[in-house]
Amino acid sequence: MQKLSGKQKRYLRASANPLSPIFSIGKNGLNQQWVNEVVAALAKRELIKVSIQQTAEVDVKDLAEFLHQHSEITVVQTIGRTAVLYLPAKEEKYAKLSPLVAKL
């Protein structure tokens, strides 16, 4: 997990604003398979939103802690039951945000 400056987080939050959540967490909760799927999506997108359903037994703090322990994903922001996740792309062709974030 990389440490982001305030300026980098503001840029990522602004970039995430128009996005819709592409993953949701339900009553099955969090597990490594789910994290692997999120990492695969982030490898191509770098920035995604995840929502937590009303039936889930976890909250955004649980999500942030679980991701911190099981992956390199950075939680940029949490709003209500939605979290914004960031992971720089390893492949150059998918690296759209990370070069800009690195310059900030």
UniProtKB/TrEMBL annotation:
Which Gene3D superfamilies is this protein grouped with?
YhbY-like
Q: Name one Pfam family in it.
A: CRS1_YhbY
Q: Does the keyword Manganese apply?
A: no
Q: Where is the CRM domain?
A: 2-98
The UniProt entry, under InterPro entries, shows:
RNA-binding_CRM, RNA-binding_domain, RNA-binding_YhbY, YhbY-like_sf
Using the record, list the residue span of the signal peptide; answer none if the entry has no such feature.
none
Q: Does the keyword Nucleotide-binding apply?
A: no
Show the SMART domains listed in the entry.
CRS1_YhbY
UniProt keyword list: RNA-binding
Identify this protein by name. RNA-binding protein YhbY
**Native species:** Convivina praedatoris
